[in-house]
Design brief:
The chain contains 13 helices and twelve strands. With 342 residues, it is an alpha/beta fold. It has three domains: 8-51, Orthogonal Bundle (434 Repressor (Amino-terminal Domain)); 63-161 and 298-326, Response regulator (Rossmann fold, 3-Layer(aba) Sandwich), CATH 3.40.50.2300; 163-296 and 330-336, Response regulator (Rossmann fold, 3-Layer(aba) Sandwich), CATH 3.40.50.2300. Helix 1 packs across helix 3 (34-47), helix 8 packs parallel to helix 9 and helix 10 packs across helix 11. The protein is elongated. Bound molecules: alpha-D-ribofuranose.
Amino acid sequence: MTRPGVSVTNVAAYAGVSLGTVSNVLNRPERVSPATRARVLQAIEELGFVRNEAARQLRAGRSRTIGLIVLDTGNPFFTDLAGGVEKAASENGLSLVLCNSDEKSDREAHYLSLLEEQRAFGILLAPGVELPARVDEIRSRGTPIVLVDRGSSRTQCSVSVDDFVGGQLAIDHLLERGHRRIAFVGGPLGLNQVADRLRGAREALQRRGAGAEDITVVETEALTFASGRDAGERIAGLSVRRRPTAVFCANDLLAFGVLQVMTKQNLAVPGDVAIVGYDDIDFAAAAAVPLTSVRQPRTQLGQTATELLIEEATDSTTHKHRQVVFSPELVVRESSARKRSR
Ligand code: RIB
């Protein structure tokens, strides 16, 4: 008896194997040991799973390569995320091609078209400010796209972190350390991740009031080390009375830029200016002044997005789109550890 809605994910869980093993039993049984194959076939039988043959044929012409388009391959956040994609892809007999949009919409469009033309197995996209219309066009033509590092509507899969909470964590921490004049460094402010972090920061400030001034926003052109240095110069150039005693940066690369300038200007971190970053990339702990940062589960983001993509690509008829949102975590280190005395 065939039960509607039984998916390959159900079969994999029931048999205690990966999605890729179920796919191999269905498409390349010679790659699976007889014992495992028997277990999967039994699960298919007992669950009443029926493969969507049309979807399989549509996929038959597909490559076994996933395309991952990220905003900046120079940012360890994305290379760590790509590591999670590669791990999940290789476990399922798939390969990865990494594309750098460099935060430019024309590059992003170029790679989306290229991956569709190359019949990519599916696309993982960390989009820029605007989600391009061609995302829906490409999906309607049969190439699944999962958004990563960005939330989505219920009609598309996405994997992200609750950046609003991340902003709250950073500011609550700085307010608890006695800071009342705080700056936010980040941009472009139209990028969802940046906007949500700033929104959370502002909520924490308003919620805790405590005579704190409104947050000073130092908008940057990009989320890079160079942009962090530019912002650091602007902050260090302020008079002591106007200079913030704490800086919350939208990512760790910005924070490293601010940290370098403070050090060059003989401003003590955290004594004169405390700094909090975002992502908690490996260099955060290794920085000259170990950096407090809001941690994102980068590898897990990549793995989860890949698993959603494989499930959708393997059986689009039973697949249910999901928006997975992870929680951020504050990792406190020397750059903001000390309580303000005055
Ligand atoms: O795109 C740049 C930033 O957004 C990364 O550093 C990470 O924070 C991501 O969410």
